[in-house]
Amino acid sequence: MLNVQFAEASSSGISSLGLNLKGFLFNLITLLIVFLILRRYVWPKIVITLEARRMMTEQSIAQARQVEEALAKAEVRAEELLANARVEADKAMADAKVRVEQLIASGEKAADERGTRIIQEAEGRLAQERERLHSELKGELSALVVATTEKVLRKKLNESEDRNLIEESLKELA
Amino acid sequence: MQTLSRRSLARYAANSMVAGVPSAEIARHLGAALIETKKTKQLAQLIEDIAYELEERKLAAHAQITTAHVIDEQIRKQIENFIAKQTGAKQVTLSENLEPALIGGIHIETAKLSWDETIRRKLTDIGGAF
Predict the structure, then answer these.
(1) Nearest-CA distance from A124 to chain B in Å?
(2) What pTM was estimated for this model as a whole?
(3) Which residue among A63, A107, B31, B104 is the one 20 to 30 A from A92 at the CA level?
(4) Where do the domains of chain B lie?
(5) Which residue among A138, A142, A173 sits closest to B115, beta carbon to beta carbon?
(6) What is the number of other CB atoms lying within 10 angstroms of the CB of residue B106?
């Protein structure tokens, strides 16, 4: 009877609008059942999974932020280190320049001293060589004088003159 | 056994000559002493020592004369007189050597004294003076 009434109503009221009330209710109940099943069994898992993914995403974002911050800090630190390194390098360069100048100066001084010593030694050797040559020359000259005198005397001094020489010598000695 | 020095032998020889012992006997004694003391190789030195002793005692002087040319008798006499005056010896004997390398002048040498008046020595002095 209900069906009849419902059929009548549908044919008369809603059915006149082209809607199937029965089918609508059936679909609604089915949808509710599906909804309840989903809510009871599927939805919590999906929520948990989504929550886990959200947390993971948030953790990833936080980690990314931390990484970014660490990177920023590292960049700052690197800049600082670079700046310090530049300062130290400039200082080292300045020190090295001063040291090099000192070394050059001391090297020039040592070279001057060595040069002076070499010149003095050379002068000493030259003087010695000059003295040696002078002595040799004197020796050769005296030998030449003696040899020449001897030759002359051998030619000039005959027996008679030698006799006179001996006589004079004896007188002088006496 | 007392060893006889060459000097004491020379003194013995001089004393013996002064005492008038014959030369042959003195020579025999000296020879025996040299053989006994095994000093026969020192005969030349012993003769020099005897000459020194004789010259020291002004008894005799022996001079070695070296010249470049032969000397005549007059020069020889002058040399004897010179040596007698310098040494005070009563008796002077000479022995002569010729040495042309001396060029000229005279070199006299006795047991005690020596004179070198040669041109060779004077040239050497000149060379040394340089």
Answers:
(1) 24
(2) 0.54
(3) A107
(4) 6-56, 60-129
(5) A173
(6) 26
